[in-house]
Structures are given as structure tokens and as C-alpha cells.
TrEMBL record:
Function of the molecule: Catalyzes the oxidation of uric acid to 5-hydroxyisourate, which is further processed to form (S)-allantoin.
Group of enzyme by EC: oxidoreductase
GO molecular function: urate oxidase activity
Taxonomy of the source species: Eukaryota, Metazoa, Ecdysozoa, Arthropoda, Hexapoda
Gene Ontology process terms (BP): purine nucleobase catabolic process; urate catabolic process
Protein known as: Uricase
Compartments where found: Peroxisome
Active site: K54, T99, H294
Signal sequence bounds: none
Binding site for 5-hydroxyisourate: T99, D100, F200, R217, V265, Q266, N292
Length: 339
């Protein structure tokens, strides 16, 4: 039998009733009642996770207030988890909100509500899907923001912007029906380097060790960070993201004239996380990852003095991408004692 659209739902079913029609519907409903992978396989297997959505919906929002314009460009991905396994088990699509419809929804919600922060827009999207479609049990939205900054041409330009990819901002917003919204924000690709005030000494020395103590070295990393909030209602998402970024830079670099000493990547990472929790009370935990980006000394002693002689202020290093050390930690607030 060819596929047909006889089961497609265009509107809510009416409340009218009638003998044979009701019996036929009841029989059909019983036959199709909540098909699951477990039922289909006689209890041998179960569908432990499932979902579908639209990835990488490109969106540019321009807010025009007279001659002064503001922009935010997003890459939005949506994901829905239905309460039914029917689309997977028997190929019944009547509960499926098409991914193309999800794409359209992103644009329509941006037009209707505008775009403020990635977190607030993500919350608008997940709330819409849960409120509009009763068959959706969980909705997720990931938003990646493109790093545009207003062009400074002696003064802030009214309508011109420059792409400034120092770091990428992202968030993931999710909500299970009848539960609270969960917001995770993040920062990625923040690459930093300092040429002094970094060391790594007094680590384990044994028969497996060839690395020598480094009392002076280049410190470079690409910071990834993610964090969650206790409450969406009191959080200032823009301020929180900037505070995380500034805390990383402050604890990495220190004052511009003197810098700050780093005995290890671990210590710098922890100091940055601690500053974030001290400054943003709405953040419940933060996790950072700092992989080493190595710059190794080149041994010039192997070459004759007549070819290495030059200005002693010149120092040459060899960048090494792989292998690289990987350091991470998560700092969270301890639960308050009720005693």
C-alpha cells in the first residue's frame, strides 16, 4: 500500500461521536497504542535515547532605531524529543514536527520577539515547541553567536561593524515538559599567549621522565569554558559572559606592566574559575579546559657562532601543536548546610 497522508493532523479532532466510526477509531487506536522498541522486539531492546532537529539555522537580526543600528548573528540548532517512539518503530510521522518547520519557527520567533541574548532567544524557542506541540516531551536549542563588534571610527559607528573573533560565545537551552529551563553558557576558542612569568617545576621525576624543570617558559593555551545558572530570572547573561572572559584574561595576564606569575596551567585555571564564582552569584558551576600550546626553545649551540651571532634580544621558538597537555577543572558552589 503506498504512503498516504490520511493520518496527517491539520487541526484538533472534533468532539462528535457516532457508533461504528467510534468503534473503528478505538480499534485502530488500540492497535497503534504507544508502539515502542521494547514491545516491537519482545522486550529484547529499548530505544534508550532519541531526538531530531534542524542544525545550523543562520540568522542575522538587525535592530534599527533611527540611524543607530544593532546586530546579532546566530547559528541556531533545534532538537525535539517526542513522547512517542512511533516514528522510529512503525514509521508513523503524524507527531513529527518537520525540521524545515523548525527552521521556519526560528525565523518567525526572531521576527516576533526580537533577539536579545543567545540564552533568552534559546529559551523562547524551547518554550514555543513545548507550548505548541503536546507530543514534544523535551526541547533543546543551541545558539552560537558570531563575534561582531561595532566599528570604532574615532567614535562608535552607527551602522558599521567589524568581525572580531577573539572568542566564540555559545549556549545550550533545554527544557523537559513540566521541569524548569536549564541554561548552559560557554566560551570557546580564546587563544592567549604570554612570553614570560610562567614556569613548571618540581613535578614527578622518575625513570619515565625526560622533561626538565622550566623556570621560565612561554605559556599559551586555547581556553574553553562552560557554566550553568541557578536561575534565568536574575541572570544578566551578557554581563556574565564578559565577566568570564575578563576573569580568564586577568588571571592569565595580570597587570599590563608587571604581569602575574603562573606556577602551572592548573593554578591559573583555578584562579580564573574562582574569580568568576566570586563575581557572578547566579553561576552555579564553571568548567574550563586549557590545553598546552607548546613553543619550544631551539638549541642554537649546535651551530657555529658566526651564524648565530646577532642581537641578543632576538629569541626564536618552535611552535608544536601535537602532542599537547590537556588541563581541565570544574569549580562549583558547595551546597549550603541546612543545620
Amino acid at each position: 500500500m503506498p504512503w498516504t497522508s490520511t493520518n496527517r493532523i491539520y487541526a484538533k479532532p472534533s468532539n462528535t461521536s457516532g457508533g461504528e466510526g467510534v468503534a473503528a477509531v478505538a480499534t485502530a487506536s488500540s492497535a497503534r497504542a504507544a508502539p515502542t522498541a521494547a514491545a516491537d522486539t519482545g522486550g529484547r531492546f529499548e530505544l534508550s535515547d532519541h531526538g531530531y532537529g534542524k542544525s545550523c539555522v543562520k540568522l542575522l537580526h538587525v535592530y534599527r532605531d533611527g540611524e543607530y543600528h544593532a546586530i546579532r548573528e546566530y547559528d541556531v540548532s533545534t532538537e525535539l524529543k517526542l513522547t512517542s517512539e512511533s516514528p522510529y518503530v512503525i514509521g508513523d510521522n503524524k507527531d513529527v514536527v518537520a525540521t524545515d518547520s523548525q527552521k521556519n519557527t526560528v525565523y518567525l520567533l526572531a521576527k516576533k520577539h526580537g533577539v536579545k541574548t543567545p540564552e533568552e532567544f534559546g529559551a523562547v524557542v524551547v518554550n514555543h515547541f513545548l507550548y505548541t506541540y503536546k507530543q514534544v516531551g523535551e526541547a533543546k536549542c543551541r545558539v552560537v553567536e558570531y563575534p561582531w563588534e561595532r566599528l570604532q571610527a574615532g567614535a562608535p559607528h552607527n551602522h558599521a561593524f567589524i568581525f572580531s573573533p577573539a572568542a566564540t560565545r555559545w549556549c545550550e537551552v533545554s527544557q523537559v515538559r513540566h521541569d524548569a529551563v536549564v541554561v548552559k553558557s560557554g566560551l570557546s576558542g580564546l587563544r592567549v599567549l604570554k612570553t614570560t612569568q610562567s614556569a613548571f617545576v618540581d613535578f614527578v621525576q622518575d625513570e619515565y621522565t625526560t622533561l626538565a624543570d622550566a623556570a621560565e617558559r612561554i605559556f599559551s593555551t586555547v581556553v574553553e569554558a562552560e557554566w550553568t545558572y541557578d536561575s534565568m530570572r536574575t541572570a544578566d547573561f551578557d554581563n556574565a559572559w564578559l565577566t568570564v572572559k575578563d576573569a580568564i584574561l586577568e588571571k592569565f595576564a595580570g597587570p599590563p606592566d608587571t604581569g602575574v606569575y603562573s606556577p602551572s596551567v592548573q593554578h591559573t585555571l583555578y584562579q580564573a574559575e574562582k574569580m568568576v564564582l566570586e563575581k557572578v552569584s547566579e553561576i552555579s558551576w564553571i568548567k574550563m579546559t586549557m590545553p598546552n600550546k607548546h613553543y619550544l626553545n631551539i638549541d642554537m649551540s649546535k651551530f657555529p657562532a658566526n651564524v648565530t651571532k646577532g642581537d641578543p634580544r632576538h629569541h626564536i621558538y618552535q611552535p608544536i601543536d601535537k602532542p599537547a597537555g590537556l588541563i581541565y577543572a570544574q569549580l562549583r558552589r558547595r551546597p549550603k548546610s541546612h543545620l
